[in-house]
Amino acid sequence: MSKPTVELLRRECAGVDEQLITQHIERLDRSYYELFTLPSVRQHLQALAGLNREHPVEVQIETLDDGQIGVTVLAVDYPGLFSLISGVFTASGFCILEGHIYTYGRIPRSAVRSRRRIRPLRKPAREDLTKRRRIIDHFIGTVDKEIDAAAWAESVRQRLHSVVMLLAEGRGDAAKRHVNEMVTAKLIDQPRMQHAVLSPTQLEIDEQPAGGGGGDEDAAPTAVTRIRVAGQDNPAFLYTLT
After folding, report:
1. Whole-angstrom distance between the N-terminal and C-terminal Cα of the chain?
2. Which of 22, 49, 138, 160 is most exposed, with minimal Cβ within 10 Å?
3. pLDDT tens digits for range 46-74
4. How much is the pLDDT for 231?
5. Tens-digit pLDDT profile for residues 119-173
6. Rounded to whole angstroms, how far apart are CA atoms 32 and 2?
7. At 130, phi and psi to the nearest 5?
8. Contacts of residue 128, Cβ cutoff 8 Å, sequence gap at least 6
9. 137 with 73: CB under 8 angstroms?
10. Residues in Cβ contact with 85 at an 8 Å cutoff, skipping those fewer than 6 apart
11. At 40, which helix (H) or strand (E)?
């Protein structure tokens, strides 16, 4: 689908704040709307609208027609969050086959300057989560067929919630330790490979300046760094890389 109008999403998402709807349209690249259908976008907006201090992440899990599992993580963004998400997936036995990662683009500097003309005299006692960017990370993968799907899904939700809650509380180091412990416990249970050889990995980095090719002229200009990694897959590879 093409980028919808504010009026269309306002009709589709009754009760969702219009400011969030506007941000969802203006700060997400066009490729997001090419991937997801209107019902999915509606579900994402409703989930993002429900995020708060006590519930900073929503995890949508579905079983696809081919037996694979789709997991969409919708959350307030924090430094290192993507790495921690991949670590939780490793600890949960989720083998990622495909991923689409979206983060709200940054607000143009002119808009930021205009908002800073009036400043509060005191720093708010609690962080205003509405000022943080949002993420919509969508993954497709598989789990062991012997695993109970419902119990697995609930476990993933609880693990991600505990990690993002630590980030929301400003305890980033504790979140990293928590995920490291989960990943370590999972890897200890993995059968050791006989005569394992570390295969070479190719890494390509392409830095595109703000307004460069591949972007969306409707979104705020944002510099983009594209990293292409080619190599043999190993347990916790994505978590280790990020």
Report:
1. 31
2. 22
3. 999 999 989 999 999 999 988 899 999 99
4. 66
5. 555 544 455 566 789 999 999 999 998 899 999 999 999 999 999 999 999 999 9
6. 9
7. -65, -20
8. none
9. yes
10. 73, 137, 160, 163
11. helix 38-49
Q: Which amino acid is at 167?
A: L
Alpha carbons 168 and 5: distance in angstroms, whole number: 32
SS3 assignment, position 54: coil
CA nearest neighbour of 73 among 51, 54, 105, 95: 51
21 pLDDT exceeds 90? yes
Global model pTM greater than 0.90: no
In DSSP notation, 58-112 reads EEEEEE-TTS-EEEEEEEE--TTHHHHHHHHHHHTT-EEEEEEEEEPPPPPHHHH
Cβ neighbours of 72 (radius 10 Å): 20
Q: Report the sign of the C-alpha dihedral through residues 173, 163, 79, 153, in that order.
A: positive
Please give the Cα distance from 34 to 27 (Å, whole number).
15
Distance between CA atoms of residues 187 and 140, nearest Å: 21
Q: What is the per-residue pLDDT for 178?
A: 97
pLDDT digits (tens, 9 = 90+) for 173-190: 999 999 999 999 988 877
Amino acid letter, residue 101: I
